[in-house]
């Protein structure tokens, strides 16, 4: 389960969740973290990271991949 309560918790739990995925799904998961739903081209990396934390909080890695397919 991904914990978006802080940047540190998010980094730790996304890395752990990522290990449960196949290689192909890991690529999709990584792309989803960089470009979450609702991200605008003008968003900074920090804004995109905050959006990812709030969007994926409470989800599993498989749910993140499925949401972004």
The largest pleated sheet is described as:
none
Strand content: under 5%
Helix content: 55-70%
Distance between the termini: 19 Å
Q: Which structural class best describes the helix and strand composition?
A: mainly alpha
Whole-number tally of structural domains = 1
Poorly predicted parts: none
CA-based shape: globular
What is the C-alpha radius of gyration, as a whole number of Å? 11 Å
General description of the model:
This protein has 69 residues and is an all-alpha fold. The chain has one domain (7-67). It is 62% helix and 0% strand. It has helices at residues 7-18, 23-34, 45-56, 61-67. The longest helix is centred in the N-terminal third of the chain and has 12 residues, at 7-18.
In short:
With about 70 residues, the chain is an all-alpha fold. The chain has helices spanning about 5-20, 25-35, 45-55, 60-65.
What descriptive keywords fit this protein?
single chain; 69 residues; mainly alpha; 4 helices; 62% helix; globular
What topology does this entry show?
Blueprint: H1 7-18, H2 23-34, H3 45-56, H4 61-67
Helix pairs in contact: 2-4
């Amino acid at each position: 389960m991904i914990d978006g309560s802080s940047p540190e918790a998010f980094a730790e739990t996304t890395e752990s969740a990522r290990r449960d995925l196949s290689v192909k799904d890991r690529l999709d998961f990584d792309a989803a973290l960089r470009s979450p739903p609702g991200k605008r081209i003008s968003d900074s990396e920090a804004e995109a990271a905050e959006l990812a934390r709030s969007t994926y909080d409470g989800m599993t890695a498989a749910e993140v991949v499925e949401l972004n397919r």
